[in-house]
Amino acid sequence: MFMGGEEAGKRILLLMSPATYRAGAFLRAAQSLGLEVVVGLDLPERLTEYWHVPLGLDFGQVGSAVEAIVAYARERPFVAVLSVDDSATEVAAYANAALGLASNSPQASEAARDKLLMRRLLSTGGVPCPVFRNVGLQAEPGWIASQVSYPCVLKPRRLSGSRGVIRANNAEEFQVAFGRVKRLLLGEGVAEAEGTLLVEDFIPGVEVALEGLLTDGQLKVLTLFDKPDPLDGPFFEETIYVTPSRLPEETQQAIAECVVVAAGALGLCTGPVHAELRVNEGGPMLVEIAGRSIGGLCSTILEFGSGLSLEELILRHALGELVEEVEREGQAAGVMMIPIPVGGMYKGVYGVEEALGVPLITGIEITARVYNQVVPLPEGGSYLGFIFARGDDVVEVESALRVAHHCLRFEICRALPMVERRGLREAGAGW
């Protein structure tokens, strides 16, 4: 156990956005290890001052964010700087480089965030991945639609969580999808004259997710998740993750080898890695690889060694401890990310007690906030909540998640299109 504060000098900086799911798990892990934590929060300067946040940063302005971190570290040095999710992996890499701390290079972190850079490096590095092309937002979608092969997938270059990822089976669907992704990107502040999106061949097959740790380029596989629900589009909302994988051992080994080559192609060499792959008769094909751990509250189901959480393992690794011999505890486990069925105002959920009574269910966390708007994919980027399960058999764990989800009934007041709202208002319906 580490001692905290100035005496041990074990101070870490955790970079996070205000809306992240991952804050609690990392803060609890740091506390269990006796670490002093400084939180670097992605906030505008005026809100930083208003809320008295010690280290408010603008992750969109990497240079100034790094300058602020370095200035802070002169008085209170860090032994590690980590981003808890995708939002600040590049800031963390540049800050670690400036402070002389172990980290992936800024170039590798950028490649893991930008799908176009990732695809180019993977292709050059011989990693199996789909045929792709980069398309400007100002392009004429009808002409582009006549040039691509189908089915294809359109995706933003830097959004995560399947936001804006849409399958198109023909030219007509392509043009609709192109307009939808373009509107999303413009709404995110992407300049139309400079913005681009990626168009890739659709990869058939089952999808898996690998969770691992890299040490000097060597991969330790922490777990391999199966995704039993087909992810064939038109949108790619993830639901159930279960582990251990039911794929043959030789297939699992091929997946791990593919991830090692992919990490090397991008230049990722240290820290957590989360990879998504498709597997078909041709073997594994890389969809994406990120230099961070699994998102949402999914890590809750993972335990290692004598009860270590994934976040404790990541922090120990960042501090230079050897973790190669630590293994995941052997029980089957699963999580369901509860999808948003329709957009509108979330008003509540029924059946939670019934769902908790389903055998093997270990917990339910509803993360949607009452009377807040919820937005489904492809525009949305969150879930209604999470269901967790453990058991001796992975098939039974998957079944329990489905039964528990069936018990839940969500009340969402569906948002009306503007034209319908106008009509109701004119009719005196209280709008």
Automatic annotation (TrEMBL):
SUPFAM superfamilies: Glutathione synthetase ATP-binding domain-like. InterPro entries: ATP-dep_AA_Ligase (IPR052032), ATP-grasp (IPR011761), LAL_C2 (IPR040570). Residues 119-319 form the ATP-grasp domain. The keyword Mitochondrion does not apply. Keywords: ATP-binding, Ligase, Nucleotide-binding. PROSITE patterns: ATP_GRASP (PS50975). It holds the Pfam family ATP-grasp_4. One of its GO terms (molecular function) is metal ion binding. PANTHER family: ATP-GRASP ENZYME FSQD, FUMIPYRROLE BIOSYNTHESIS PROTEIN C. This is Phosphoribosylglycinamide synthetase. It comes from Dictyobacter vulcani.
